Amino acid sequence: MSAPSPLRGPGPVPHLPHLPGPGRWRLVPGASRAGFRVRDKLVTAVEGTMPVLGGTVTVDDGGAVVRAVVRVDATAVSTGNERRDRELGRPRFLSTGAHPVVEVRTTTTAAIASSTGQDDGQDDVSTGHVHAHAVVLARGASAPVELTATLQPPPAAVPHGVRVRVRGRLDRRPLGIAAPTVLVGRFLDLEADLVLEPDADGPPRSGAGAP
After folding, report:
1. Is residue 16 situated within a structural domain?
2. Other residues' Cβ atoms within 10 Å of the Cβ of residue 158
3. In-domain check, residue 12
4. How do 184-198 and 23-27 pair as beta strands?
5. Domain CATH code at residue 132
6. Which of 5, 73, 138, 193 might form a disulfide with 102, Cβ 3.0–4.6 angstroms?
7. CA 113, CA 150: separation in Å to the nearest integer?
8. Across all residues in the chain, what is the average pLDDT?
């Protein structure tokens, strides 16, 4: 499969109705979710979620994401096991007493690229992709992460918004989480389903959002 071609640069820009227009967008916490998956004790995997608190995405006039920040509530981590959730909040893991918020922010400009994909195996839909270098800030430390975001049709509840599905793999070691890898996997698979709307304090300009 050939790599998608960036929107920025020479040549016509295809019509992609779900691409965010230039300006600043803000996350809709109630419509967004963030989660992770990590190996547990060599043979099983644990999935968890953290509530999305907020964040912003800034898109320049050329269609590139120049800044993105997402904040989640580490104090409300949920894996379906209350004892494990309490343990994750302790200093050896997320240290939520001192660092209740986990933040993810991009560190490089990310260009939006276009492609035509399938929506649940049914109709063809126009989507966009963003590849970005980012950093995760947690428990007073930071760790790099590579992210891939795929633009989706906006939800009915936010018709003029933008929906983005984000995936990445995080190495927990730079965060200082010292649990033995025989007990907890070194890598966490991150996934977020984020809904954005125009920021009233920095509204996207013409062409933003769904028509």
Report:
1. no
2. 17
3. no
4. antiparallel
5. 2.40.128.110
6. 138
7. 10
8. 80
